[in-house]
Every structure is written in C-alpha cells, then in structure tokens.
DNA sequence: CTGAAAGCGCTTACAG
DNA sequence: CTGAAAGCGCTTACAG
C-alpha cells in the first residue's frame, strides 16, 4: 500500500508537482484556480506529505531532540512537558529520549538524534565533555538544561544549586540542628557534585557536624533514597535532620520513615530538593528547595531557538527558593535530638 | 557547514558510494580491503548517516510513535519508560508525543507522526473513532494501550478496569462502608467510562448508597482530585470512604485531606487507582488498585512489532490487583461513620 | 503564475 | 566483489 505522494495530488489537480508543492506549502504566487484544485485533490486523497523527503531537500526537520536522564523522575517529567509545549509554539516537534541515567543509552540517543538531523538538542547530560564529542563539536545547536558538562561551550539553563542547599542547611542550623544527614546525588552529574559541595561548605559555615558518615551517596532514584535513610538512621548517633538531593530519593527516604513509624516533623526534620506535586501527599507538608521548572523548560527552548537562528545566547541561572513547611519545625516544637 | 555524506567517505576510501553503503550497512559481499578502507574513512570523517535519506529509500524508519495523554501522570511516565526500553530492544527509537489531555494536540501529533512515517504507533487515545481516522484507516500499524476507542479495529493492551473497581468497592463495603465517594475520570476516555460504570454496578451489587452526589467528575489531573475531595467532604452527609479513579486525582484528594487535618485510615478510608512510587509518601500506606505497567508497556510493543511483521496479534487484558494497606482499616479500628 | 529539471543523501537491482 | 544508474518524495532556482 503505497501512500499517496505529491505527484498523485498534482495529477488529480491537473497541475505539475511543482505547483502542487507551492500551493501546499503556502508558497509564493499561485493562481486561485491552482490553489482550489490542489487543495481539494489533497483533501480527497488524504495526502500527508512525507517529512523525510521534505527535510532532505530543505535543511531543517522542524524537530528538536530532548535528552533526559529519567522520565520517571517527576522533575524531568515536568521539564519535558514544559519543553515540549514551548517547542510546539515555535512549530517544533520534540523527539524525546530517556537515557535512563545510563551513559551508554545517552550516547546511543545522541547518535540517533544526530542521525535524525534534529535542528537542535536540549539535554540534561551526564559524564564528561569527551563523551559528548558529537554535540560539542558544534554539529548541532545544543543547550544544556539542569545539568551541565565541564568544559563544554554550550549555553545552559540551570538552577542555583548551591544557593538552595546553603539556605536549607542554614535553616536547619537555625532550628538547632547540628547533625544533618545528607543523601547526595551521583557525582557523575554536575548537580550531584554542586549540591554536595554546597552542603559541605554550609556545614562548615554553620559549624555543624562534619562527620563523613553523614553523607550517603545515592543515584537520584528512589531505592537509593531509601537505602540512604536506613544507613543514616542506623548510625550510632543518627542525625535528627535529613536533606535529600532530589525528589525521587526523598520519596524513598520518606517511605523508610513511614515504615519505621518515625514521624516527620516531630521525630525528624526533613528537607527535599525539588518541589513536586506528589509532595502534597506528605503530612505535615515537606519543606523543599523549589525551582521554577516551567521557566527552566521554556528558557531552554528559547535559548535553543536563538542558537538555531545563529545567535549566541547567554546562559541563565534560575534562583532557588526555600519553602518552609511542617517537616522542619523548630526543635522546641518537639524534635528530640 | 555541510555534514559529511557517504560520497565523502567513498571518495576518501577510494571506492564508489555503492560500496561504501554496502560496507556501512554490513551488507552482502564486500572485500576485506573495502571494508577496512571505508570504515577508517568513515571514522576519520565522523560520518553519521542521514536517517532521512535512508528511510526515503527503504520504507522503514526504525522509529515508533508513542502518543500519551499526560507525561506528568506517573502512570504514563512509567508506561513511557517501559515502552521505550522495550522498543530499544527491537532497534526502534521512540518518538514521544504528549497530548496534554487535549483532543487538538492529540490530532496534531497523529498528523506529525504519520508525516514522520513512523513504522508503528502506540497510543492511549481519547475521543471517538472518527477523530482518529488517519490511524484507523490502517495507514500505519497501531496499538492502543490503557485506553481504547470504541469501534476501532486495533489490537489493545488494557487493564481490567471493571474488576479492579469492583474489588475496591466490595472491599470497602465489607468494611462496613455504605457511602462511598467516587472521583471519576473524564468520560471522554474509555478508562473513565469503564471505571465509573463498574463503580455504579458495584454500588448496586453491594447495596451501597446510590446518591448521585457521591460521584464527582474529574479530569485525571490533580487539581480536579482536590476539587472532588472538597465537594464530597462538604456534602451534608459526607462519605467516610473515598475512591479516586487515577493516581494524580488521588494526590490532589489526599492533599485536601492533609489540609483539613483529616487523618487517612482513621477519619477516612481511601483507595487509589494505580499504584505509583510516590504513594509511599502517604502514612499509613494507601490501599490501591494496582497493575503491572511494565508488562503493559512491553506487551504494547510486542503487539506492535507483530503487527509490523504482518501478523494480527490478539488484544490482551491485564489483571487488576487490589492491594490492601493502612488507608482502609475496618470500621471497628476507629473509622467514625 | 507555472512547468521541466536538478538535486537533497542514501540504497539496490542490474551488469559485469 | 564492485560501479553506474535509477529512484525514494519532495522543493526550488531557472526559464518562460
């Protein structure tokens, strides 16, 4: 079953393929007669132009690639949504790839997307610059979002990781906490590294306990958050405050607290990085380090569009905001250290 | 900056484009010499074949389309992940589209995906058969997943909606509940309709209260779950048990309970449709109607692959499983009607 | 305003 | 085993 081509349309309309093409792409001057004939013919035949053929001739495909580490992470799902909606406004279709927090899958998606000749690529990358040589050689306009890669000359849209973590630690310290357990992200990611560094600096700044055991290394997925909570709560001198470096690890960690009948807010202070809708499930509500994910997605697209247009857009860093809720009451309200 | 083509590679390797093509696609007989020369040339030039040109010649693009209603719904995020991983195993890239629970965006994605000449399409559709004429005319192999469209001759992978809801209502009735509030999904979706129908049947079967006010119509998104919970809890005679037809509405509804200091499990029984990771945030844990999303995604891909191969695969219905947890204790345990 | 022709980058019978 | 040639479906200078 060969699908109908522009030739079929042209034949039926009694014009040449060239004229049919002009009419269908709303191009230049075409006669009233031609327009009518071609449009009805296309309609009747159910003509659907072959995007492959079109983009072989033109140099653009009107698609952008979006490469994310984990679509099951609500933060990235929100980001994907924001990017896709914004891209639509510019007439771009978003091809989405899920690297599954795996270097290998990331590489293979970069490959495939470049083969598909996407007009641009938005990625939350992992690994190092040399792993992304294809992108960084300037083969295609690229924007990094949320995460970055050292030494890459690519515009980025990131959040103020350091500021958010510092605010959270200061907040806990002000509440009287001196032992703060930290569930860190993977150090292969820029966000994992920056947040940990900021945590360590803030611990020093506030005079909190620098015990190395207070840092557990997770992988941004929920099981590692659970493992981290278990590890920290089982320490000889367990921390009375926990800070987790992303939303999925927070979910895992809170789950462990629930299992153990530890009451968040009274038995344990808790701060989560990222503010996701599902956090309203927690009672009392979680104190979080929040970002404007929607703005992050929009801006990433805007920078990419500018790049595609040949401009050299400036990177932007979005502010973090500490939202204090019931999970971090002052110690006098009943938190036994 | 023209990207390197197979001609460039051929020239550098001192062979014809035809030979270069054969080597690069691991085709038929090629000489040892040719293979070596072409491979090194391709390597040196960083040659990346143009997928557009290739799929214009061949008839397949090695891509499938995945059209989902809402990527921010964890159920669909999990499904997307499962589909994508399975498709990868067969060498297919997944082009992902987010219809945003909008008919219009769904239509435009169907259009774009057909234009991109995806080899097959997996969709959780909404609306009616006539809205999807392109798909249903057999233009491209299609599988519906989770949701279906009446009168469409398309293989489907669905969950046993009716069985799950019936089990939940019976469970609540056995606990002594006679007034059960139901937050329904949109009636433009097959899942919304089937679940509501099953709810009504089970209410009759168990002799529960058939008051029409006990059904609130939501839209599968969290804000409507919150609105539904407020509506139901504000009734003159509010239900002491709530059942929500998906995970996002459950999140909204539980959030309202938290706001109102209603203790789930003691003040109110709660059952959620779908079991998502974030539900571990709730304490006590939620009773849920669970499915094997992973199997659903895998099967959808398997059916599609079969269809692409020219077979006529059978639709499959996956079982629902009621998982009873702390949010639905027996009334004697303290639920005041 | 319109058509004939060339060409985008690849693949594949067809000869040899 | 290999090359010349045709063709996938479109678009776009080039003439007219």
UniProtKB/TrEMBL annotation, chains A, B:
<keyword id="KW-0804">Transcription</keyword>
<dbReference type="Pfam" id="PF00356">
    <property type="entry name" value="LacI"/>
</dbReference>
<keyword id="KW-0678">Repressor</keyword>
<dbReference type="InterPro" id="IPR046335">
    <property type="entry name" value="LacI/GalR-like_sensor"/>
</dbReference>
<dbReference type="InterPro" id="IPR010982">
    <property type="entry name" value="Lambda_DNA-bd_dom_sf"/>
</dbReference>
<feature type="domain" description="HTH lacI-type">
    <location>
        <begin position="4"/>
        <end position="58"/>
    </location>
</feature>
<protein>
    <submittedName>
        <fullName>LacI family transcriptional regulator</fullName>
    </submittedName>
</protein>
<dbReference type="InterPro" id="IPR028082">
    <property type="entry name" value="Peripla_BP_I"/>
</dbReference>
<dbReference type="Pfam" id="PF13377">
    <property type="entry name" value="Peripla_BP_3"/>
</dbReference>
<dbReference type="InterPro" id="IPR000843">
    <property type="entry name" value="HTH_LacI"/>
</dbReference>
<keyword id="KW-0805">Transcription regulation</keyword>
<keyword id="KW-0238">DNA-binding</keyword>
């Amino acid at each position: 079953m060969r699908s109908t081509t522009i030739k079929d349309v042209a034949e039926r309309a009694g014009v040449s393929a060239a004229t049919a093409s002009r009419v269908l792409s709303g191009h230049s001057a075409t006669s009233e007669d031609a327009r009518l004939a071609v449009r009805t013919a296309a309609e009747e035949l159910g003509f659907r132009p072959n995007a492959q053929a079109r983009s072989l001739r033109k140099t653009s495909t009107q698609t952008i690639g979006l490469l994310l580490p984990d679509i099951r992470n609500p933060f990235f799902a929100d980001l994907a949504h924001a990017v896709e909606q914004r891209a639509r406004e510019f007439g771009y279709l978003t091809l989405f790839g899920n690297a599954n927090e795996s270097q290998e899958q990331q590489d293979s998606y970069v490959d495939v997307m470049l083969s598909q000749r996407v007009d641009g690529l938005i990625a939350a990358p992992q690994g190092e610059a040399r792993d992304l040589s294809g992108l960084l050689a300037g083969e295609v306009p690229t924007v990094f979002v949320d995460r970055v890669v050292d030494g890459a000359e690519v515009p980025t849209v990131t959040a103020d990781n350091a500021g958010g973590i510092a605010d959270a630690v200061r907040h806990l310290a002000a509440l009287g906490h001196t032992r703060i357990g930290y569930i860190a992200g993977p150090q292969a990611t820029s966000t994992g590294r920056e947040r940990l560094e900021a945590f360590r600096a803030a611990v020093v700044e506030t005079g909190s306990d620098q015990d190395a055991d207070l840092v557990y290394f997770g992988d941004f997925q929920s099981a590692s958050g659970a493992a981290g909570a278990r590890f920290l709560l089982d320490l000889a001198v367990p921390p009375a405050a926990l800070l987790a470096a992303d939303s999925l690890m927070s979910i895992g960690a809170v789950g462990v607290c629930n299992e153990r009948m530890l009451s968040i807010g009274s038995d344990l202070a808790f701060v989560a990085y990222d503010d996701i809708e599902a956090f309203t499930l927690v009672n009392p509500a979680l104190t979080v380090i929040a970002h404007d994910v929607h703005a992050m997605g929009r801006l990433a697209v805007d920078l990419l569009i500018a790049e595609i247009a040949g401009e050299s857009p400036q990177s932007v860093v979005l502010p973090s905001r500490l939202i204090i809720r019931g999970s971090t009451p002052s110690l006098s309200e009943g938190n036994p250290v």
